[in-house]
Design brief:
Two copies of one chain form a homodimer. In chain A, helix 3 runs antiparallel to helix 4, helix 3 (65-76) packs across helix 10 (187-214) and helix 15 (297-308) packs antiparallel against helix 16 (314-327). With 400 residues, the first copy, chain A, is mainly alpha-helical. The first copy, chain A, is built from 19 helices and two strands. Chain A is globular and about 75 Å long.
Chain lengths: 400, 400
């Protein structure tokens, strides 16, 4: 279905003018960044070693979907901007704190076009900066009490506490799969992971907090939570699709992408489920091996080269391989190569796994549309309801 | 002054029977650990990969001074156990979460007699487990509302938010000193660091939370906060003294101790301030070099050995040294050796730095006594006031 076409079952006529999603987003983002700057504040000698680093990720180029969704939900329900803005800013701060720690946990090198925080300042400082961002997020939620009343303020605090728990569980699940080398996973496992790891903090909690700040009833809150859950799954599958498709164009230019990292995606799991036993064995062997840019792998490659050119004898080669394996907590495996990763991508295409991923994403996007339409049918139209509609339209056309 | 002797200026007679500090501590610890188990709870597949790991540090052998201090403060002021127990457990959980992340940041290998969490499970899982412990700590503080009322519950939340901010600032300051190689530091720098890095979460916040849970007035809260601040400084200097003295007996048995790590202590800073320029230059050069068990240093030593025994030629040696330095983000420096660290300890003894440390600790312990006496003079005696007294007595005799 074309995203601009009126949707069957929708009681509303299509918007006469195309909604300017980017303009709504950038206006929300400006307000949220001002609020984040105020939350982080300034404290003399601690600015360059702590507080300025907390602003690094939030100030990098980003759409700011999460806080905009939180604010749009509240205001679509008739809530005031002041009732939701501090909480929206806190959610954005949490999001960025999780990114700082996730980047350490996933050994990521680049975030939003620049080196990750731990690449720039080392793991110790990045762990601490993430902790600082998490710890700053509490006070603005306490300050909500005079603005929105005690009951809603406490419910928002509880929603954020629950969000943290879900996020940490999602991260634990993925780290466990990586450690165990678990690949025998179905789509329900993928959905459980994605909803926990990113769904709760990216979409579900922003919507729930928006509802609470607006004083919405329980049915509205749960209905919109289901909408947000469906969006989060569609959105993550699309992210993974865009990542794989980006791979197609990167002819040896740079190393990146989920296949190098061995990330569990709908597409990769589909390919592993449907390919032959031999292909599966080959793929699992490849996926167990490190990225060439992983710590240890660069050194391992150098050690192999020195041995090959006669600078290092056999005994020394064995001793260094063993020491490197111990230092990186794994076995000494040769890193993945570019042709191998291209062959894995070819396997995904042969199995129709990208098309399968597009189908699954579209199913969840349609689910999101249905849930949102039910909400919009009984909600007065406004720029905020039109943002929610435009967000879903964007999700429908994002990875086609 | 002997710790059991009556203190000048104290209006009370000495306790007729010696107070059993360990018994009070272990009883408090049992209650707190039950509470922590209830907070962490159980959640099927997430237990072995997340929730059981959160209990690892809390269940290791420890005195449990922090929660006992929190509970004793509340109950000395007439507050009920139920009013303070959940908050005391939360503080203990935070303490352990900070330890998990600090151990990563300081690259510590051992904690309470066993390998650190990141040594056992890797940095990614340890970062996430620490985040999980921090995120679990919010809900019990929200559940305080029906038990102690809204106002005190919000004030405890605020106290905990402030504690986190101080702790993260302290950690940022120390990491900055390490990164800058800053050694030109006075005792006021040391006090600022210690109060922020451990004082707020170990002593000041437990006491403040105990006061709030008991409904104490502002003067009592501030007076006891000053007491806790003085205890925290005395306590940390004593920790550092015990660490240095432990070094004396460890003839090559195991690698450990603050001198190996280059930790900024009152004693080391004193020696650097008072020694000759030559000694200072020698010491600063030594302190800039890594521990032999640091990541990279073990590999560097192996590379040197392989070169010495002819397994690795000169070109290969140079290439590997350069690659190792890049991987560890530093320059390739030879690790500290046992005789060099012993020579540094001898410098501290020659300069009278250990005696100086003992004096400074005793000054802060005396300050703590004065503050506590003022409180005890107007507080009915109970097993809880006797615990506070015994705690200060313990601090007086701890590192003599």
């Amino acid at each position: 279905m074309h995203p601009d076409a009126p949707r069957a079952g929708s009681p509303r006529a299509p918007a006469p003018v195309r909604f300017d999603l980017d303009r709504y987003l950038s206006s929300a983002r400006r307000a949220v960044l001002d609020e984040i700057r105020a939350i982080v504040g300034s404290k003399g000698r601690y600015d360059p070693i702590l507080y300025q680093l907390m602003l690094d990720y939030p100030l990098r180029e980003a759409k700011g979907l999460r806080p905009a969704l939180c604010m749009a939900t509240c205001r679509a329900l008739g809530g005031r901007l002041e009732a939701v803005l501090p909480s929206a800013a806190v959610l954005e701060l949490y999001h960025n704190a999780f990114l700082v720690h996730d980047d350490i946990e996933d050994a990521s090198l680049v975030r939003r076009g620049a080196p990750t925080l731990h690449e720039q300042h080392g793991v110790p400082i990045a762990v601490n900066v993430g902790d600082g961002m998490l710890s700053l997020a509490l006070q603005p939620l306490l300050d909500n009490v005079p603005e929105i009343g005690l009951g809603p303020a406490l419910r928002i605090l509880q929603a954020v506490a629950h969000m943290c728990r879900e996020t940490v569980e999602g991260q634990a699940l993925e780290l466990d799969w990586v450690r165990q080398g678990a690949w025998d996973l179905g789509e329900e496992d993928y959905v459980e992971l994605v909803v926990k790891k990113t769904g709760w903090y990216s979409f579900i909690t922003p919507v729930r907090v928006g509802c609470i700040a607006a004083g919405a009833d329980e049915a509205t809150l749960e209905g919109l939570s289901d909408f947000a859950r469906a969006v989060s799954i569609a959105f993550q599958i699309q992210d993974d699709l865009l990542n794989l498709e980006g791979e197609l164009d990167a002819y040896g230019k740079e190393i990146g992408g989920d296949l190098w990292e061995g990330k569990r995606t709908v597409m990769l799991l589909h390919a592993l489920r449907t390919c032959s036993d031999d292909e599966r064995a080959w793929a699992l062997d490849l996926l167990a091996r490190p990225r060439p840019d992983a710590e240890g792998a660069r050194l391992g490659t150098l050690v192999d080269e020195l041995h090959a050119r006669g600078s290092l004898d056999a005994a020394g080669h064995a001793a260094l391989q063993e020491a490197l394996a111990r230092a990186t907590g794994g076995v000494a495996l040769a890193p993945k190569t570019e042709p191998e990763v291209r062959a894995l991508l070819a396997l995904l295409e042969r199995q129709g796994s990208l098309a399968h991923g597009r189908e699954v994403a579209e199913r969840w996007a349609a689910e999101a549309s249905t849930r949102l339409d039910a909400f919009l049918a009984r909600t007065p139209a406004s720029v905020h309801t039109r943002f929610l509609q435009a967000l879903v339209d964007y999700v429908h056309r994002r990875a086609r």
